[in-house]
């Protein structure tokens, strides 16, 4: 009897110590409460569960590439300006990658420039361009210094580049710069173009 | 390319003789400004290859100075004319077209060449300065290392002193016991006290000790049990190892790349989006392309297989959350919920992401109505009363998030 009690005591203490020692690992998200309420039934794009594999996708995930030729419409406008400045543009960009000359000759910024669009352009420039091209477009951004080959917007070969050229380069890239069309939609690109023109004027 | 050629032409001119070069060259100071504005993106004044060739000694390589002028102003025309050296350079540097600089005058190009020449001779001092700088940098960490060393030494010394004190005390007790046991005039009670031995076995058997151990064990187990129950469904502190050792500290902290550059939909959509490999490649086409971690990225692209980044922040399906509502409309910074991401080597879930945590913030936060006409009437109604919090306009309604 006495012996039994001793064993109980010791196992209690050992148990307590073990539980303290077994803190949750950093790789462990912990126990999930009511998983059938946690997990989406629909195919959520970023769904990631060990037990789930999308049966229709080679890699089992829910993310898909859009069908080739898809024109994204939901997130941007097609109508700009009022009265005399009114423009309607579906922003379908069909000029192929190697035809920057066509873009330079034919494209014109459909987004009428206002204080707001320029401010948007600056914000977008800060998010998507600044770390390479630098705050003032001198090509001296934090990444640009390491990446090398980033031009100076106000340099002699660059300060006259027009709407079409800048839009085409953002969409498809040029030289060492890779395409950024997947990150900024056409309206955003046109706003960035407006701000880049401001930077070109700098000394 | 044009710059390259320009640089090349420059060096030949210099090669013809140092003295004439200096006089026939140009203003190196003016050249420096021109070089930095127009050439430095792709060329170094040393022999380091940036995008195009390093321009040190360029005039020893190019056919003549006129060739440099032509090349800088329009390199594609030079290549198209079938110029042998132009085509050789063009092919050597991956057929990357050099930008044309039609605005640069011959005098400007002379100035740039003068700068390249002067930079080549000045280069060693720059290296030396760099070396000095490194020396200074190493001195600082040594100092902080010294202080921790002192700390350890003091700690060890204290421990030694304690051990010595203990030893002395034990010696005194032994001596005293021996001295007392030799005395004959002790009473029975005193003798009993003297010969007393602690019986550990008996002590453990005593009810007091048993009771104390039992109570402590029950309390401890109770606390642990309660803690682990309270943590169910809360993944705070979750920091999984990702398939590629990507560091937010380096990218967002040191290089100051904006969050939205990779998480493109964070201002537009429900999800912040996990970047696809093409966004990584925007920089890693060039940067660190021999690192084993970056090789994993290349392999993924070659196999056309998405990288399976492990999702850190998960909300249950029965709670609706939209990033754009908080970032774009509310104007909140990412760090509000995600912590100091720009200091994290491995991303960790900082916030508990519980309902209480959401509601707490909705109760405290004033609605950011600045420049948003949608709220004008609401603001007017609330103007005389308490400030308009998120909770005031339905931020804690059940159906806002659960529907």
UniProtKB/TrEMBL annotation, chain A:
<keyword id="KW-0408">Iron</keyword>
<feature type="domain" description="Cytochrome c">
    <location>
        <begin position="116"/>
        <end position="200"/>
    </location>
</feature>
<dbReference type="GO" id="GO:0020037">
    <property type="term" value="F:heme binding"/>
</dbReference>
<dbReference type="GO" id="GO:0009055">
    <property type="term" value="F:electron transfer activity"/>
</dbReference>
<keyword id="KW-0349">Heme</keyword>
<dbReference type="InterPro" id="IPR036909">
    <property type="entry name" value="Cyt_c-like_dom_sf"/>
</dbReference>
<keyword id="KW-0479">Metal-binding</keyword>
<dbReference type="InterPro" id="IPR009056">
    <property type="entry name" value="Cyt_c-like_dom"/>
</dbReference>
<dbReference type="GO" id="GO:0046872">
    <property type="term" value="F:metal ion binding"/>
</dbReference>
<dbReference type="Pfam" id="PF13442">
    <property type="entry name" value="Cytochrome_CBB3"/>
</dbReference>
<protein>
    <submittedName>
        <fullName>Cytochrome c</fullName>
    </submittedName>
</protein>
């Amino acid at each position: 009897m006495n012996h039994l009690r001793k064993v109980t005591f010791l196992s209690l203490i050992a148990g307590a110590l073990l539980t303290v020692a077994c803190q949750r690992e950093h790789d462990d998200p912990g126990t999930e409460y009511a998983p059938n309420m946690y997990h989406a039934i629909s195919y959520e794009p970023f769904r990631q569960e060990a037990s789930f594999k999308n049966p229709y996708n080679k890699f089992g995930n829910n993310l898909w590439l859009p069908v080739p030729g898809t024109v994204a419409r939901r997130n941007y406008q097609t109508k700009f300006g009022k009265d005399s400045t009114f423009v309607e543009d579906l922003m379908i960009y069909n000029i192929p990658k190697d035809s920057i000359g066509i873009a330079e000759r034919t494209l014109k910024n459909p987004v009428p420039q206002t204080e707001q669009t320029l401010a948007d352009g600056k914000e977008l420039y800060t998010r998507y361009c600044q770390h390479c091209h630098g705050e003032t477009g001198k090509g001296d951004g934090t990444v640009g210094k390491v990446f090398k080959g980033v031009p100076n917007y106000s340099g002699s070969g660059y300060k006259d580049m027009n709407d079409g050229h800048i839009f085409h380069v953002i969409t498809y890239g040029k030289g060492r710069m890779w395409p950024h069309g997947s990150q900024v939609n056409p309206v955003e690109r046109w706003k960035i173009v407006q701000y880049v023109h401001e930077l070109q004027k700098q000394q | 390319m044009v710059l390259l050629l320009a640089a090349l032409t420059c060096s030949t001119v210099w090669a013809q003789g140092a003295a004439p070069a200096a006089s026939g060259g140009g203003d190196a100071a003016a050249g420096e400004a021109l070089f930095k504005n127009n050439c430095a993106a792709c060329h170094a004044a040393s022999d380091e290859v940036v995008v195009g060739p390093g321009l040190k000694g360029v005039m020893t390589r190019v056919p003549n100075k006129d060739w440099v002028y032509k090349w800088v102003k329009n390199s594609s025309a030079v290549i198209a004319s079938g110029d042998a050296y132009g085509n050789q350079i063009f092919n050597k540097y991956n057929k990357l077209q050099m930008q044309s600089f039609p605005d640069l005058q011959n005098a400007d190009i002379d100035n740039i060449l003068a700068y390249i020449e002067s930079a080549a001779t000045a280069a060693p001092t720059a290296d030396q300065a760099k070396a000095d700088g490194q020396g200074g940098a190493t001195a600082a960490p040594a100092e902080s290392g010294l202080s921790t060393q002192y700390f350890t030494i003091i700690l060890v010394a204290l421990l030694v002193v304690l051990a010595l004190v203990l030893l002395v005390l034990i010696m005194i007790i032994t001596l005293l016991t021996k001295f007392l046991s030799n005395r004959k005039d002790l009473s029975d009670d005193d003798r009993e006290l003297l010969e007393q031995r602690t019986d550990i076995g008996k002590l453990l058997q005593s009810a007091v000790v048993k009771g104390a151990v039992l109570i402590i064990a029950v309390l401890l187990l109770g606390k642990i049990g309660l803690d682990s129950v309270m943590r169910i469904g809360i993944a705070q502190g979750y920091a999984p190892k990702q398939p590629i050792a990507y560091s937010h500290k380096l990218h967002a902290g040191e290089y100051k790349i904006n969050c939205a550059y990779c998480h493109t939909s964070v201002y537009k959509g429900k999800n912040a989006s996990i970047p696809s490999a093409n966004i990584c490649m925007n920089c890693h086409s060039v940067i660190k392309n021999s690192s084993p971690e970056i090789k994993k990225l290349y392999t993924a692209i070659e196999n056309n297989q998405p990288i399976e980044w492990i999702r850190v922040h998960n909300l249950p399906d029965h709670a609706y959350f939209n990033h754009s509502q908080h970032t774009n409309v509310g104007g909140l910074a990412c760090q509000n919920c995600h912590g100091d991401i720009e200091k994290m080597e491995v991303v960790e879930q900082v916030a508990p992401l519980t309902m209480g945590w959401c509601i707490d913030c909705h109760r405290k936060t004033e609605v950011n109505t600045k420049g948003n006409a949608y709220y004008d009437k609401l603001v007017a109604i609330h103007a005389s009363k308490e400030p308009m919090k998120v909770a005031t306009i339905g931020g804690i309604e059940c159906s806002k998030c659960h529907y």
